[in-house]
Design brief:
By secondary structure, this protein is of the alpha+beta class. The protein is built from two helices and eight strands.
Length: about 130
């Protein structure tokens, strides 16, 4: 192969490698998400412990998204469905003196995590909350 042909082949190869690198770096080969939610975890003092923007596909369950994206996640089956008992460094103690409240867009969720519906752009917060004596 002469020098000119070698240069052309190397230039084409460099362009192909560069194009593949750009596609890979921008997520061009990743499956596209149907939407994104932001999930926040806060402690009793309202200190931010974790925050992640999570892509989801239609039909994904919040329980699975949380379990796959945060550390130390456990659930407990209850008559009302699944309760989140631990996430990151927060744990609901046996005496329930504190518990993990679920807020969706700043409002207390009216259902448990297994029944909570979400849509693109929602912010779901798990906040360690102390029971207030009556």
């Amino acid at each position: 192969m002469n020098k000119k042909a070698t240069k052309i082949v190397l230039a084409l190869l460099a362009v192909a490698v560069l194009a593949l690198g750009i596609i890979w770096a921008t997520g061009g080969f990743a499956a596209k998400a149907d939407g994104h939610i932001t999930v926040v975890v806060k402690d009793l003092g309202d200190k931010l412990l974790a925050e992640k923007k999570i892509g989801y596909k239609t039909g994904d369950k919040l329980t699975d998204l949380v379990k796959n994206n945060f550390k130390n996640v456990t659930y407990k089956e209850d008559q009302y469905g699944l309760l989140i008992m631990t996430i990151e460094s927060i744990t609901t103690p046996e005496d329930w003196s504190t518990w993990i409240a679920i807020l969706i867009n700043g409002e207390l969720a009216q259902v448990g995590i297994s029944s909570l519906e979400f849509k693109d752009g929602d912010t779901i917060s798990f906040v360690n909350t102390q029971l207030i004596p009556q």
